[in-house]
Design brief:
The chain is an alpha+beta fold and about 160 residues long. It has three helices and seven strands, in the order βααββββββα. The protein starts with a strand and ends with a helix. One of its GO terms (cellular component) is cytoplasm.
């Protein structure tokens, strides 16, 4: 049964700048935002919209796995919402059978954006859950904080 975990954060970056970074420039920005974790991001299939498949290659020794393949399953420019589902490697090699992160960005002011994060997950029924949603949400919030710093430093 798929479970959900929700969290949110406020970033001191305008909505359009943040949306562009997370939706259009994502594959170029992630390795710059997380240079000690992500080696590169490759587009395997698609044009950046729904159905696009990405491979995140991690630096050696950072993670128990060296890559994670994700598919963009939601992409809505009007509501500024993007969903990324892990389809191979990464969390799926750590005891989860389903893992999806959905980001929704909402302007608070011209230079502040609320980011709602929904993590949907399920774990293999015959093993104890090894990957906790609170832990993976910490990783997501860490990424968003690094993205904020990167964008505020003139990226």
């Amino acid at each position: 049964m798929i479970k959900e975990f929700n969290t949110q954060t406020t970033l001191n970056v305008g909505l359009e700048t943040l949306w562009t970074a997370q939706s259009r420039d994502f594959i170029f920005i992630v390795p710059k935002v997380l240079p000690n974790i992500v080696k590169d991001v490759q587009v395997v299939q698609g044009d950046g919209g729904v159905g696009t498949i990405l491979i995140f290659n991690f630096l050696p020794g950072i993670s128990p796995v060296n890559y994670q393949r994700e598919e963009i399953t939601q992409f809505d420019e009007l509501s500024h919402e993007i969903g990324l589902q892990v389809i191979e490697g990464g969390y799926l090699n750590q005891g989860l059978s389903y893992y999806k992160t959905t980001f929704q960005f909402t302007a608070i002011t011209e230079d502040k954006t609320l980011v709602n994060v929904k993590i949907s997950y399920d774990h293999e029924s015959d093993i104890e859950e090894k990957v906790k949603p609170t832990k993976t949400s910490e990783s997501t919030l860490f990424y968003l904080g690094c993205l904020e710093k990167y964008l505020l430093n003139g990226a």
